[in-house]
Amino acid sequence: MDRIVLDTAEQTGAHAAGLWLLAPGENLLVLECMVGMPLEFAAPWHRIALTHSVPVTDAVTGRVVVHVDSQQQLARHYPRAALVLPYDFALAAAPLVYGEEVLGAVLLTWPASRQRPLTSPVQDRLEAGCALLATALYCARGGSVPLSPSDRPRALVARSAATASGDPAAAASFSHRLPEGCVCLDLQGRIVHLNPVAADLLGGTPSALMGTLPWESVPWLDDPVYENRYRTAVISRHHTIFSARHPDGQWLDFHLYPDDTGISVRITRAEPADTLRPPRVSPAAAGTRVGSLYHLMHLAGALTEAVSVKDVVRLVSDTVVPAFDAQALVILTAEGGRLRIVGYHGYPAEIMQCFDGTPLTSPTPGVAALTKGTPGFFANREELEAAYPARAGRQDGKAAWAFLPLIASGRPVGTCVLAYNRPHIFPAEERAALTSLSGLIAQALDRARLYDAEHAVAQALQQSLLPRALPAQPGLQVAARYLPSSHGMDIGGDFYDLIRLDDDTVAAVIGDVQGHSVTAAALMGQVRTAIRAHTTAGAVPHEVLAHTNRLLTDLDTGLFTSCLYVRIDLTTHTACLANAGHLPPLLTAPDGTTVTLELESGLLLGIDPEAAYTDREVVLPPESVLTLYTDGLVERVGSDLSTGIRALSDSLSTYHQHALDSAVRLITQKLTVETERTDDIALLLLRPCRRQEATGAGRGEPGTGNDSAS
Fold it and tell me: Helices (H) and strands (E) in the chain — how many of each?
């Protein structure tokens, strides 16, 4: 595998390459080896859940080559990765596919200065290398048992470094004769050679500086800015410049020249006229995130996407658990004097039941982390039981634990537990990173709990305002569905209703109140009530809209409402319609032909108290389908409204012979399966029929009408 990775990097001109393998039985990619960059740079991605969108996971899940040309494009498509790697470079990720099976992925990077690095010949070489790797992996496992990734990733040496020729003594003599400071760093950043001038400028001896990281061995270079310049040079392969001030007041210029084998550094004294200048940074340099800060920023970026408690648990399990090589996670919150489990990963449900509801007076590490606000790290069971003897009788099948207090704005929120299958030493840097991370998790969890509480209120309000079931009406089959938006509090102003007037007459209404808020939902309830009141009082369609409009303008809520009202006579098979700024209804004939009913549209409700509305009568033949809908079903970013309406018309023609409850389900699935819902959706189908065939009357969703969980 290593040889093929090196060959692929060399043949494609990439300056770095990495190989990720799928872990058997897990939706997880594990870094196997890397060349051209330190393994530390890829620390946030040593283990990546397939649900976490980065180029290598997208290549695996989509079975396509993913290409990113620049840092700007990376920020646009992968903002979390760009946050951690704010450097200018290009990349390509390709899946390893053998037959129908995906085994892993390869990632290549190039300097962004190289124009269009992924040309057709280069992509052909990349795909050929991936094919060879997939074949090697499949053969290595004997075609049956999946090959497990290595416990730790390997750092490969580029052939250009391994085959470097020349006399080391001559090279040393050459650098010693130069009047400027010369330092050679390997790709890890360690000093592998320096001349006496460089040692003098850095304030040390060659023997003391050799093999060290400059920002660790030279105190006045111990600044994240300087380490970041090294990272910039390695990742972007750009000539990078910075200036630093020596303790004696002298400014020094550092020029970094990177290649595949390491970095040559030239150190010169700044000109006297420039001694008062601030530190100089080359245009390629950016940011100050280094070391563990990169890891924390990556995880912090993930947590900003969490909305609900379920989201927090999922994101922490997808990012934190694999990043710290843990196997299990539990998040607990304090409720009613007890620790309650709000989410977990990697534990059986029966074990979680044993630990759920632990009293806050119990002498346990989870309670101690919450009440004392201090983390607990236990490398093995002996350490845990020595500190908490009460845990001796409570086994969870794990061998090491980190108990992290979740404190937001000075308030204890809960406890996060990371667990390991084998004993695990927690180095000081890892403890510091986990402790810092616990604060981010606490803030995300606190926001998520507030959201969940508001969401529960919103759901209850929404369910109370939409009809729980549609009334049965002889001679009419009806089906409806409501779907909330994928964003916000899953609450909006779309509504529908069916009002039975007598055995032969029924009124149907659909509308959309502006906004996605509790206020919009409350106004929607008022509109429904007003329409029902005017309908049962005997008003004709245009009068119902006019009366409701005057009510909304009097309320002066600042929100406007579109509304389509239909009065259906099942004896004459006719419908009288009036429209207040709503989308036109669609009529599907018994033969499947679907047409748009163009109506004269009045103003939206709530704008002008004197607005007038017009009635239009149409024929509804038996077995035809009248479709009322809101814009969330047909409106898509990047396409016009007419395209969405045509797609709905085509779906109605396709499913016109289905039972209505089946048709409404299939239509909403077809039109929403590949898109996030940025708006809520209401759909109402009405089919007049012969009285003895009206067995489907009253069919709908959520209980048939508002299946907000769908």
Answer: 22, 29
From first CA to last CA, the distance across the chain in angstroms is 45
- Per DSSP, 39 falls in state G
CA angle 626, 627, 631 (to 5 degrees): 155
Q: How do residues 254-271 score in pLDDT, each as one tens digit?
A: 999 998 888 999 999 886
* CA-wise closest residue to 160 among 31, 260, 57, 263: 260
3-state secondary structure 198-251: HHHHHCCCHHHHCCCCHHHHCHHHCCHHHHHHHHHHHHHCCCEEEEEECCCCCE
Query: Tens digits of per-residue pLDDT, 307-317?
Result: 888 888 888 88
Kindly state the tokens that stand for 546.
Answer: 């006019």
Could you list the beta-strand ranges (E) of 396-539. Answer: 400-408, 411-420, 476-483, 494-500, 505-513
d(CA 373, CA 665): 50
- Say what the pTM is: 0.51
Helical H segments across 400-469, by residue range:
428-465
Short-list 38, 9, 5, CA closest to 187 = 38
Which runs of E-coded beta strand occur in 16-115? 16-22, 28-35, 47-49, 66-68, 89-98, 101-111
Q: How many residues does the chain have?
A: 710
- Residue 327 to residue 63: CA distance in whole angstroms: 27
